[in-house]
Amino acid sequence: MNKYLQDLIKLSKFDTAISMFEPKIEKEKAKLATFVETAEAIKASINTLYLEIDDVKSKRTKNNIHLSELKTKLDNIAKKNKDVANDKELKALQLEEEIAKEQISFANEEIERLDNLTVSKDERLKELQAKLAVEEEDIKEIQVAVDNIIEEINNDRNSVYQQRSELLEKFDNKILTFYEKIKRWAKDSAVVPVKKQACYGCFMKINDKTYAEVIKAEEIVNCPHCGRILYKEDEEKEA
């Protein structure tokens, strides 16, 4: 095989490997992000619950104040009953007393409802706090695992970069410029194999003459359809 073609194949494989490192890292980060998003959602729910509990307690305080005012009102009505001068005043006081008692009953019912609601929200809050604690422990474990994997990926990437640099030191500048021009639009498929007499960049069938030149591998051959650099893989690899 032509030496320049061999170098191009190696360079192309290095570039393909390098372009795959970042997606691998992002994939590992995404695993962690899923758990972090879950934890953040739980935190948001906890904060919302705190606000709801504060609101319920505020309403209970208002009802307590109102209840105290109503009891004071009943005491005043009882005092006024002693100074009633006629039936009309008596009936008015009795009506006022009846309304106050109904309001007291409603206030007590509302306080009971608010207390039950507070208990329910407190229980839910404890559940979410426990769930958050578990998620945060999982995050710590996954963070360690992800960091280790990313470190391995970076080590592999540095190794590939090193091998690529060593290859470029002895690379022919004209061939490299030629490769870079194709790579500019073809990305990681600037150099592709031919399988079943088809270019594995554009997947178009190449003619017999071009295919024969690719098999000989004495010269650098471009796909007549897309312009990518072609090479023939070993039979085992192709199979």
From TrEMBL:
Alphabetic keyword roster: Coiled coil
InterPro entries assigned to the protein according to its UniProt record, in alphabetical order: CT398_CC_hairpin (IPR056003), Oxidative_Scav/Glycosyltrans (IPR052376), Zf-RING_7 (IPR003743)
Domain C4-type zinc ribbon: 198-230
Residue ranges of coiled coil: 67-170
Domain of life: Bacteria
Annotated ranges, domain CT398-like coiled coil hairpin: 27-183
PANTHER family associated with the record: PHOSPHOLIPASE C-BETA-2-RELATED, SCAVENGER RECEPTOR CLASS A MEMBER 3
Protein name (record): Zinc ribbon domain-containing protein (DUF164 domain)
